[in-house]
Amino acid sequence: MNELKQNYINKGKNYIPRTQHLDKQGHAKFVNHLILTSSPYLLQHAHNPVNWYEFSDEAFDKAKHENKPIFISIGYATCHWCHVMEKESFDNIEVATFLNQYFIAIKVDREIRPDIDNTYMNVSQLLNGSGGWPLNTILLPNGKAFFAGTYFPKKKLLDILAQVQNLWENKADVLNKQANKISQTLNQSKAISNQILNDNIIIKSIEGILNDFDEFEGGFGQAPKFPHESTLLLLINEQRRNPSENKLNAIITTLDTMASGGLYDVIGGGFHRYSTDNSWLVPHFEKMLYNQAQISLVYTRAYTLTKKPLYKRISKKTLDYTLREMQDTNNGFFSATDADSQNEEGIFFIWSIDELSSIFNQQELEQLKQWFDLSSNTNFKKGHIIRFKNINNISQKDNKIINILLDKLYQIRNKRLSPLTDNKILLSWNALMVQSLLEAGETFNEGKYTKLGINLANYLHTHFNKNNQLYRVSIDSKIGTLALFEDYAYLSNAYLSVFDQTNDKKWLDRAITLVNVMNEQFWDKKYHGFNINHNTKYLTTNQKEGFDGAIPSTNAIAYKVLTKLNSRIHVDDFKQQATQLLNSFAKQINQNPSNYTSFILGINNQLNGEINPIQTIYNGHIRTHSRFHNNQLLINLQLQPLWHINSNKPLQDSLIATKIININTNYWTINHVIYPQGELINLNFSKEKISIYRDKIQIQVILTNNTKQYHPPTLQLTLQGCNNKACLTPKTITIQPN
């Protein structure tokens, strides 16, 4: 215990213990083992009277030695209901006394150990049909769970603990039987799938999504509503391939309503985690890094689909918020900000009419009321949530005035007591930001985002690697916790995004290295697919994530990585593994394809080609980069040394000409195509000179839009790659620029 107290003293004078149990000098009366950690969430409980342990050998050995059940509580630092349960139960002497006497208590930060969270969330789903946080589970000393639930009020929690204690003392065989049954049921899911995907799986997935679409308020399903970014990314991808009014309506209705305010912070930018109501007005006010990364990507791609200025604004505002308020000085991004401040949820984000009247003069107040709904519809607790009346009625001129009003509110709001920032820098969540920044830079032609994306990738590569080990977490520049499968999958995908953007081979090599280690550590050689973690000590199941949750399915991202690698360097091992991975989830995907949207998106790209302004052909020997602006499409081709393609006029009938055709004639007309002048050379396989392109060339296409409603132009580029010895099979790729 002296070690715990010394660690408390070492925190220094600025450290504020989070507890109601203080002595006259303001010092915490209780210190438990969580004082030894750096996790912000665990430190929130370090001064509870509960004798908390981390998930560790020490805790499990103590449970076995004392023959006590284990009580595990899982949450995260910015979780509102975790705060509620901490205050009313875990900081309560009565609850703590009971737990300390009859249980071994363990606290887990789900963001640091999602593998532990996933294991016991599956138990909750099995027993209750639902889950959430805080997640509270009770296990045998060997790690097998027999009970799980979420938030419990103090009285309910004490009742549950008393019942379990009574059973433990008198009917332990009942608990053992329950735990073994749960473990057996969950482990049955490891069996290999013998199915293959249905031929119409993409259509079925889209149908399932649209059947769940809320036509009035947007989004999918009923409250609580989550952004479901993976679903939106699939819809946008499929809309670009096969346009339809119902898909477009689902995309636009959802994005417009989410952007109107409530879920979206119109004053500071950025999105809250989810909405408690159907109309996206009242959120749980925490902001997660993974939401900012994914939603900005959604709005960026929606802009390429529609060229709607609102979507460009929302994407940039979201990224700028993240860069301004969530970025560490070393380039990494913090994991989240809290919903609570001043011990109240959302108080930082709401405004009373009296306060607004004191901030603005009469003219400004009238302007505010003109564009924002300040009626009783937007009431929350003691004030209003700022929300647009009709976000689509705002002109560019209006935006200038609105920006002045919102900036004034932002400056005032910054003087309030800010919500807690969880300063963990998580490798996987930061990797999501890399792609979002790079795509924003490409789409909006803003180099700052591109540079920041590359800088972030470099930081992740250098900071989280130590002694040939990859780590998951950085707090105060100190890394810890070995990386999980999630980190490898997301980071390798980020590296490929940088490679595509820069054409710098070191990023491709880094991705391949990561995948090789990922295969060694996490690949299930018997049943295929990737396990969440290779260290399963005390975890009686090792699950594989296939469906999309708050973040994309890790196995789906790995599938994308394997197929991308195959298209860029053509390694049969990667292609075969991608097929095995997909087949291992085929049964689940066939049963409910709308829950596996990241897999479906990967399948769509594999079958029909990636929708990407940057594409690689002939195993990476030829690279195309398309840019579209003011109805002018520029297609830049870069060929590796000793490679060439036939020119637009190759001179010989047997050679395939490089040619552009328009396949979207309903919306666009090609006015003119300017091909470069071919270079006449002699090659071994031809007695006559042939006309070729090599090194770097550019094709310019002038287009006319035939409709008022924007649709991305879709063209096909046909070319034939050759080296000095022979010409290969011609390729036709789809060009659909951002």
Automatic annotation (TrEMBL):
- Output the InterPro entries linked to this UniProt entry: 6-hairpin_glycosidase_sf, 6hp_glycosidase-like_sf, DsbDN, DsbDN_sf, Ssp411, Ssp411-like_TRX, Thioredoxin-like_sf
Q: Name one GO biological process term.
A: carbohydrate metabolic process
Entry's SUPFAM superfamilies?
Six-hairpin glycosidases, Thioredoxin-like
**According to the lineage, what is the superkingdom?**
Bacteria
The protein's matches in CDD domains, at most eight in alphabetical order, are given as: SSP411
Any one Pfam family match given in the protein's UniProt record, by short name:
DsbD_N
- Where does the record place the Thiol:disulfide interchange protein DsbD N-terminal domain? 629-735
Stretches assigned to the Spermatogenesis-associated protein 20-like TRX domain: 32-186
Q: Which residues form a coiled coil?
A: none
**Record protein name field:** DUF255 domain-containing protein
